[in-house]
Known about the structure:
Layout: E1 12-16, H1 19-29, E2 33-40, E3 45-52, E4 55-62, E5 81-85, H2 88-97, E6 106-107, E7 114-119, E8 125-130
Parallel strand pairs: 1-4, 5-8
Antiparallel strand pairs: 2-3, 3-4, 6-7, 7-8
Amino acid sequence: MSGLQLKQVHHIAIIARNYPLSRAFYCDILGFTLMAEVYREARDSWKGDLALNGSYVIELFSFPEPPSRPSRPEACGLRHLAFSVEDIDAATQYLSERGVICEDIRIDPLTGKRFTFFSDPDGLPLELYQA
């Protein structure tokens, strides 16, 4: 056996300013399932484990007074989190009906696939990619 041999992405950690609002956004609007949740008193912090289609994907944290994430102009580091959908028109309509604003749908010039961006309650850029 040689090399690192990564198997897959295990999870993505997201820090929320308002934990109940972000938990509701990811679970009630985006369809994640809350697998576990714990309040860490020593850090005044919530941690929720969120699954998508039965697979653990996101650790949702809260911390008191987290600094804002620079997004525009684009900052160095993780740029966005993308989700694949079968029907981007239906997905954007669903989000719009729940008050989530999506950018205009664009075409990826390299793949010819349709995509759009929207934001979570803290402004984290999220993408829908029709695959």
